[in-house]
What we know:
Two copies of one chain form a homodimer.
Chain A: H1 41-48, H2 54-63, E1 64-67, E2 71-75, E3 81-84, H3 86-96, H4 103-106, E4 108-109, E5 117-118, E6 124-132, H5 134-141, H6 146-165, E7 172-179, E8 184-193, E9 195-201, H7 204-207, H8 211-214, E10 226-232, E11 235-236, E12 255-260, H9 271-300, H10 304-332, H11 334-353, H12 363-383, H13 393-407, H14 421-432, H15 439-457, H16 462-468, H17 473-483, H18 489-505, H19 509-551, E13 564-569, E14 573-575, E15 578-580, E16 583-585, H20 586-592, H21 603-608, E17 617-622, E18 634-636, E19 642-649, E20 667-671, H22 672-681, H23 686-695
Antiparallel strand pairs in A: 1-2, 1-6, 2-3, 3-10, 4-9, 5-9, 6-8, 7-8, 9-10, 10-11, 12-13, 12-18, 14-15, 16-17, 17-20, 18-19, 19-20
Amino acid sequence: MPVFRHRPSITPLLGVTLLCAFTSLTASAMEGMWTLDNLPKATLAQKYGFTPDDAWVNKVMHSAARMASGCSTSFVSAGGLVLTNHHCVDSCLGDLSRPGQDLRRSGFIAQRPEEERQCPGMELNRLEQITDVSAAFAQATAGKTGQAYTEAANATRARLESACVNGQDATVRCDVVTLYQGGARHLYRYHRYQDVRLAFAPEVSIGAFGGDPDNFDFPRYDLDMGLLRVYENGRPAATPEFFPLNPHGPEAGELVITAGNPGSTQRLLTVAQLETLRDVDLPGRLLREAEQRGLLNQYGSEGTEQNRLAQKTLRWIENGFKVQYGQLETLRDAEVMARKRSEEAALRQFAASRPELKDTLGAWDDIARATRVYREIQAHLSYTEGAQGYWTDYYGWARTLVRAAAERSKPSGERLPEFADAALLATQRHLLAPRPVDPAFEKVKLAWSLAQMRQWLGADDPLVRQVLGRQSPQTLASALVDGTTLGDPKVRQALWDGGAAAIAASQDPFIRLALATDAEARALRARHENEVKAVETRAAEQIARVRFARTGTSVYPDATFSLRLSFGEIQGFKKNGQPVAPFTEIGGTFARATGEDPFALPQSWLSAQKALNPAQRFNMVSTNDIIGGNSGSPLINRRGELVGLIFDGNLGSLGGAYWYDEADNRAVSVHAGAILETLDKVYHANRLVSELKAGAVH
Amino acid sequence: MPVFRHRPSITPLLGVTLLCAFTSLTASAMEGMWTLDNLPKATLAQKYGFTPDDAWVNKVMHSAARMASGCSTSFVSAGGLVLTNHHCVDSCLGDLSRPGQDLRRSGFIAQRPEEERQCPGMELNRLEQITDVSAAFAQATAGKTGQAYTEAANATRARLESACVNGQDATVRCDVVTLYQGGARHLYRYHRYQDVRLAFAPEVSIGAFGGDPDNFDFPRYDLDMGLLRVYENGRPAATPEFFPLNPHGPEAGELVITAGNPGSTQRLLTVAQLETLRDVDLPGRLLREAEQRGLLNQYGSEGTEQNRLAQKTLRWIENGFKVQYGQLETLRDAEVMARKRSEEAALRQFAASRPELKDTLGAWDDIARATRVYREIQAHLSYTEGAQGYWTDYYGWARTLVRAAAERSKPSGERLPEFADAALLATQRHLLAPRPVDPAFEKVKLAWSLAQMRQWLGADDPLVRQVLGRQSPQTLASALVDGTTLGDPKVRQALWDGGAAAIAASQDPFIRLALATDAEARALRARHENEVKAVETRAAEQIARVRFARTGTSVYPDATFSLRLSFGEIQGFKKNGQPVAPFTEIGGTFARATGEDPFALPQSWLSAQKALNPAQRFNMVSTNDIIGGNSGSPLINRRGELVGLIFDGNLGSLGGAYWYDEADNRAVSVHAGAILETLDKVYHANRLVSELKAGAVH
């Protein structure tokens, strides 16, 4: 369940019309999250005798889709049926649950079409077209630095995206994506599905069997799947291109391919940037998540309803903690860092040897300087623009409303990017989605995060004094939550519609708080963008030129939550020196079950045990190079048949943010045969089984 | 409240008869935790015209005392009255509290002698004699490594300590202390007070006013004091040597001296050892404490009784977190590490230049290899010998009982050191002290720590499988706590007295658990001692020789929870570029109070506000070089008068574990005048005020 990218910033897909290509220094046979225009064809032909043609590539592109909130999916029927992970529909299950009715716990089956339920705010994007806009950016930002650079880049982005969306067509989404850490920029146009409904999800006890202890591990026994359906004009959308299920699945050693949207890798970062992650960002996030976990576990022990609320959030915190701890271990590994240092030294030496790269020589030091600024502002940035002091949906809504009111009166190109015309719809949908919140739970989270703000900034920090005044975190949190009406989507709608006048007149305490703290948050955001991000991007453009000049045209950019293919094969690995076989079987699930959470099977499985084929393959590992965002990616064979469903990596995959290690790094999938077997024998989901079988390989 | 060394391992004091002296590379004017035989006399004479003679030194030695559990104290009357910090009597207050009667919250005053209450298990040690036993160790361990080295050192230690205690005299305590990370060993004989009673403690709301937010910060307004009294044969002990109180206190710039027991510094460690702290130990402790804090804060919000239990533990966790985070920041500072690297390189270069030091050249690499072994075993070591999976007093008691039964049948020299004859009494007292535990709270902590064990070792780890079986952490924790009778001190006494037969026959589930896991815990402890600690100590002996040859005889050893003097002056500092004055006044307390925890003053202070002199100096900072263990140290002037009570360091002091930075590092004290003023005007503790005034300077 790890390969989910929670709350992504706005980042786009990558597709087929790229012309340029850049290079990194090393690539094992299986390494790479490849753009569709630049597949490792020589390796594929030589190693597997596989030569994908344009038709194959286009079919894959149209059969895959991105979940805007940070997962991957694929179409699995002509009638708009979408396969993804249980953990990708987890927040939808939470949003549709109510006290006394916990859909995460019970699972969900729409036995009839009309029982399919809309997921609040969910959006799917299918890639349609890509345009190289690098030249437009280069022209607009030529000779600019700092604030001027940021403004020019934002304005260019807004202009290109607006033109692409072409008015108010809500079925089109356009995003500019920055590749190679700034080495190229492309404009992506998607078909946008905004009516996405839940058709099936198993109980979380089998969707995430083994819970946090088994997360990122293998052998594994998870039915981490969910089925959605895209609707248009109130009816299931037609999706003539889809991946047919092949229930036989792959064999050991067979070539398997993922078509998904890896969220973010940091393989091209400089050593100074990696050290900043190691010393500042990762420890900070881990300490925060550790304390959140302690709080949520204890809160969840206080009653059934508290447990429902806590578990919904806890799952992501535990997942994030495990990911980041694995990343930190990688960056603490002296050998990994020595390798990064020597790669960087070689690159700098190469640049120094070429007169035409003379202007790039300062790039690494520029980045190092920017990271020092970042280290200096990081704590305050987290608590102003990062809003870490306000762990509650109320504040996020208030911030969006306050900023929208101020930004919407400006020309699109001068707004904060998330309020530019092309992005406004997604921002609005996120704000207005009818997500339930529990005031008592919000008080607990908010009080904790206000105390964190005081802890990390100090009791005498001006922001802390401004926010807390003479109140304790608990007192202030209670006053804010008791006084707000933002939990009601209609109130949010009215404030959105009312604009600046409505915001100015509002007495909602969260609106007042967001207004009062907005100036400092914007100032720090600007400093971060101008003195850190703009410098890093500028310098990364230069480094990309060096890399390109040095190593040619056979490489992939860092992940950007855009469509990538990875090629691997079904293959076991060694754990503590012992070989681990590549497949598990359904029978093993019952052997591992203890009856105690998180190893307790749901009643549906216990009842169906005799009917299930114990030898049916259940989960499997492959050498595909994936990362968070790949959750829900189809695992296909060379014929474009869906043979599995990516849902996790093993522990050895966690360093994948920084480098790919073929010996240890494995992707974990649900076997296609187990999907059909359990939908049929455990859930008796006849309608969905028939629909899947209609397109399936026999 | 930070300068408290919680749960120390057994480490001894350091005193006046040392002959040898070693050196470090740098020393600012104020740097140093000096042994009494090796004071920085030249600096003191030159800078302050102060030349302490033997009588002065002996008086200081006899007027100070160590709290065996990890604090410093001093005698302040001839009748056994002892001054220390509120946070040093905090656990006594907790032990004497019961549901509905929270002495931490209410404070405690014995207005009459017979109201003084014994603190369970508390022990005070006053230094009597020191003997250099380096030669005995050198002879016993000559040519030995690994297990042979460990056994020879343990046997020598047991033999020397036993001979020193001289039979079963319970008023004598003897400890061998290892100085200079192994460069010398000395035997310390103490007078031991085992009947220590509480006379006074203020409410925690003023004892730790400002709570965690203000901890390690300044300006400060804390009455972090407590009064104890040592008894012998049921009557107050006579303590003719004590520090008279000087209520006028010191002036800015005046020389002030601490006489306390700094617990542990790491200033002489090699770079490999510092990197291990930075990469492994500190992050591990911080992540654990962060999650514990989240849990305890939430548990404490569930009710008054839960709050009482949680706060008792939370204070130490918050304190430890702040200390360790400051230490981590220091070790993450590239400049600090560069300086350590260059110091080490210079030392190695010096060793290489001297033929007589040829045998020391491998020492640094030996230590680096030992740290690699440590990194490899650290996780399992923590959960076996470290018992981190069992966050409950029950397990600690069970472990002690199981091991005592096995060890006591061996000759003293072959036992684990904590069970050797000379140490046995302290171990027994700790076990049998009547400390109340709350079963419901123990279940919560234990379940959490069992889940941690599974998280960090993995669900399939042999130890995890052995301990948990098919049970969840919650189920097992409940079964263990419901089944045990170890909460009753009489049961522990019976099992201690019954020895091996009683343990073998016991069906107590904690005894069974401790028995079942003991072999693996002992095996890992042995590996740690033989392959890590023995190697490090051996190599440190060699490095100490190099240091001594290079820099002469003007330096202090790393702190070892033994008596040290530090010399400093009352002096402010700069915080965020702004000057901070060295004193606060009582009036400022009322200005800082908000009425909300942890800035809420107790009713006693609110009632007494008009009577109190607002201009009375309250807290103050000085440049004394202190660290955890110095809590409760007297701050004296050159005439041996008590002018303040050390209770904290500022944020700049947290890096003091690794180096002393005179610009930033400050010790924080309660002013002697504030002690008398508040005992009189707020607490009307007339009896104690009279006693203090009887010896005081007028």
